[in-house]
User: Fold these one by one.
Assistant:
Number 1:
Amino acid sequence: SYREQNLPVTDGSRELHSLCAQLEFLLQFDLKEKRNFFGQRKDYWDFLCQGLARRRQEHEGVRFVTSLDKLKTPVGRARAFLRYCLVHRQLAESLQLCLLDPQSLSEWYYARSPFLSPRRRAEILGSLYELDGITFHLALRRVDLDTAWPMFSEMNERLENIWVGGWMVWWMVRLGGGCRDGWSGGWMMSRWRDGWRDGQLWDGGIPTTAPAVPAPQGWAQSCLATLCVRARQDGERWASALQRAQREAMEREATRGEEQARQQELVRDMKGRLLELLREKDALWQKTEGIDLQMPSTAPRDVGLCARCHKDFRLLSRRYSCRLCQGKVCHTCSVDVGKQGRCCLLCYQQRHQQAT
């Protein structure tokens, strides 16, 4: 419609925001995560700079964007570059230079990126070349591109005092959506200011006397009502997006809590299993030493204490059964008697005295 009506696309055009957002989505979709020497994450701005540097020495858009010292983020610089290319009708040509090398595309994008498909890449470039027939009148030195794309509903309004034959009129100029019959507020204001002659609104136009001021006032009220409706729609849309983001955050928090509970339960199970394995290991070790827990013993003792030093047997403490008195003794209070096993020090001394 802009090409048919020979109208320029401005920052107040509704379609501009959709075009820029979709183009940025394509350039960021399935982009590999890369970092520079200082650990900062690279974005599609670095991909564009690298692709253009390989094909030509220096791109005018890159040189212009790097001169904008108020843009601090790679995303903001990339947005300024896309707007520059739209104004100078270089968007399709610049992107085609970046998409010529398949190896470079594989280094920057994963397999799901549409740029890795020759058919989809050709369709995208064909659509972008059609934009060369449309005129874009955009502000190239915007400082708010680091945060987001400029919204079509943004407006810059100003109140001016206009004295018309003793009438005081408060007039709004430079409204975001233009005004009725294709006249912009700024143009209308300049004609009204410069063209007042002998009670007429402007020379060479429709003669309008001073009492006819309510007509532009009614138009201003209609424009203001339209802007209020747009602002309310934007507010409802952003409120819905905020509620959706909050709901997703609550769902993620609930999922994180469930995952944490499962991990804690798994840790408890692992600790319990570890204790069981330690008990089984201790039982097997005692069996290898020939300890029979069911064998009766004539020596009065506490099964949890050493029969000689009365030391408390812990979970991993070594316990031996004396071959003579059947008492449970620790490693310190026992003596190895060879193939016959071990016996306590008291029985060993008595046996040694009998032998001598």
Number 2:
Amino acid sequence: MGKLINLEGLRFGKWLVISNGQSNKKGKVLWKCKCDCGTERLVSGGNLRQGLSSSCGCTIVENNTKHGLHKHPVYPVWQAMIQRCTNPNSQNFHRYGGRGIGVSDRWKGDQGFPNFLSDMGERPTKNHTIERRNNNEGYCPENCSWETRNAQYYNRSTNSRLTLNGETLTITEWAAKIGISPPNIYARLNKLNWPIERALTEPPNKKYARRKNHDAPGSLSSDKNSP
């Protein structure tokens, strides 16, 4: 094990290292830090040295109150995205920033939220959240859209990105294009094990065509051959 580097008294952005705190479950040394705003928190030495943590998050709030949009209904969505991708202390950091999922530079900094709102537009309903089309890529205008939670469920399921005739789309995008509901496409692929071409080209049984897009996969009829 390498020699411990003493960070006490050093400054990293708005953090001032006060003292060595404790080790976490993974054996990483945590340092007690005080932000310029007065907030105290334990931060890992690696995150401090690598620039992954430079404040308690108050900088984001300060920057975005300047443009007067911090009370906009979409603002919490943007703020949560930034936190889970850039703040190692965020509860979900390990699922996003911790595995390399980042945020476009255009959506960060002083003009990050205005740019985000300009690119994404207003959230259609309160049931819509920001969705990444490719879950292995970060948050950027080209990879994001507003989707309902049901749509996200189908897009993240097995065979979520389907290619037919050289065109690759998510299940919900194919559904909108061909007029077959996401639950039916999902069932064809994952319950009936149809090949992609048949799943995306065969017209639906009339009684299923009346199904709404939010129907759960398990609610389909027991008819095994005609979703």
Number 3:
Amino acid sequence: MQKPQNGYKVYQCPKCGTKKYVPFTCKSRLCTSCGAKAANEWAEKINHRLLKVPHRHVVFTIPETLRELFKNPDYQKILFQASKVTMEDMIKFSNKSSKKKIKLKIGMIQVLHTYSADTKHNPHVHSIVTEGGFDGKKNWIHVNFLILTDSVVLEKATCINNHFANNVID
């Protein structure tokens, strides 16, 4: 956020003498102003690295009752793992009518957010996922994301549930 406490630069018109004070930014990623700028710059940089195929923005969240557990970085890793496995499993069905499972290599970028816009603890993973993937012969196979929506919720819940069922929670 721009505040005079962060320092400022003074611009003065050489003709009329009018001064304009421009405060420096705090450069904090938690700041709604500075953080948004940094996020936009990051998104622009990532955009140039994406494959030139259709992508989807998918957000993986957890129920509010479990959020406290996910303050632990080890559990945050589970959220990444669950979202990755979920998307890979869902994309195995490349065509709803054929029901044929095809192992595809998908593209996915994941970013963990630990707080929501209202600054409450709300761990969630934002994922940019290719709408399909490459088969073993490096052929692009498109996947219709609309048929995956309900399955993703079930798969995510199953993956997290299986992890907690197979591991002791400290």
Number 4:
Amino acid sequence: LIQFVVCGTDSANNCNDWNREDQTLQKCMEWLATNGSTAHLKAKQYKPSERSEILNGFHKAIESLAVPTHLQDCHQHKASKEPAMDLNGGRIVCISAFRNDSHIKSIEDSVKELITERNELIVKQRKVDTSCRLLTISFCELVFINTFPIEDQSMTSKIMEIPRHELNGLVSSEVHSVKSGRFLAAKLSYLVLSHYSLASTTVTGIPMKEEQNASSSANYDVEIVHSSEAHTDSFKTGLISTEGVCVKTFREGFSYDTITLKWCTPRTNAVELHYCTTAHRITSVDVNSRPASCLTNFLLSGRTVMLEMPRLKGTKIMSHMLSSHCGELYIHTLGTGRSTLEDPPSISEGSGGRVTDYRINDFGEMMKRNRLVACRHHQSANKEVLFPIEKSKQSLGKQTIYWPLVIGNTILYNIQIQIQNFLHLVPKEYLTEEEVLECKKSIYHLVGMESKGTNLPVPTIGIKGKGPKREELYRMVWNEMEYFVRSYCVTPEHQSILTCLLECRSKPDPHSSSTTPSVRTTTADATDESTKTQSNGTKPNESEWAWKESYDWGRHDIIPMNDTQNSSKVMEAPLKKFKANGVESSNKSLSTASQSLLM
């Protein structure tokens, strides 16, 4: 909201009010036409304004800042807290001719005193009258614009510009010095853009018929201002700074840049229909010019204008769109990336594109099982409850302790049809008796396949020559299944599945005779056998130890169940020594991708 105050020798008057009806250019022009210029402006001889005349205007401006707007008044009625706690403030822009730097300094000191006295008066008035709706001023920005004639050589023209600085906890000040006339207009345009975070866009190539000759037409340019966020996406994506795109220019005589976009008639081609990311209100800089008026009427009639970035080469880029909604003009930022109507890009176009055997379908199924939904956070007085997002992260981390990204790095995940829901049930935190029985049936089914000599599906990607033998494949899949179960073995139900797996492999559990069940079973037996073989002077079979060399895990990687202090950390402990064909790096990549999905 903007309010104009004109001060003279004796008094100061308001041109408009905080009401929405008064926030129009027509209202201000009518007031100025009715009241005319002030007495000191009618004087033939130019002279700097006196301190008392300027203070009259500041006194009126401070009174206006204490008056609540319609929105502030509504908040005071609805809020239960005291009105004094509401933040209230504004910016006072003073356009005048000052004598010297000391003149401005004395005015700053006087304004600080006026604001302090005004706040004290409002606080006292509230104590006496509870229905007082005036607000104290929490902050105030002072902007002094010193203007002087173009050829003036007096002390007024030598006032130095001072950037924004704090005077006290409530007041800040900045000083600008500029020549009168069109230079003052350019300075005001610059301050408006900086104070309200606005940006300038120039629409070029607007076809318009000539007033004198209606049969011919010419192209005109119209400058509009809007929120700077309308160009944020273009700067973030690097589209504006790309080679061959020339859109950022400086207007002659102005100290700010403008984005140049070309007029384009909208088309209904599906390829050129882009989604809208943001929409912001706009206004033309020169509202009284004929080109700006024609553009405004064209948009208010329900038409739409597409804006494209001028390019030196290549295809054009539709970046923005102008349209009207409910009598207001808006600029829409369009998505300049890949169209949503096109086919999704191939995975080979991204990072790691040389690898072509990613488990894409399995990853999509895992995403479906871990979809996030809105959930209320229930706080318990007895125990600490994690936030739902933290629970989701922990659940996803547990499910991906062992999750190869590449098909060629696993055999177990390639036989999901044969072992049914084994891979989905084991990672669960708790298992029922039916689920344990189903997992054991999957193990027995795999035993039957091995006894019948059924061939296992082997990924052919990246394999040269003959593949491994059937016996070696079964040895590898049994070792992988054992490692998979041990990774999630934290409950008695999981222990029973592990025991069943070891019994089927005829592999004794050294801790099975203990009273307390434990999962500290490792490859100690195989290690001892290897030691005996090497002591006899014979070399062990390389294919027999292929899986062990890749999946070399020791006793310290598995925590027994009777270790109550560390048993809760089993699922969170990283599998440091699991490096089968780059699975460790794949797990890290999957963990990063999973956290990005959750966030």
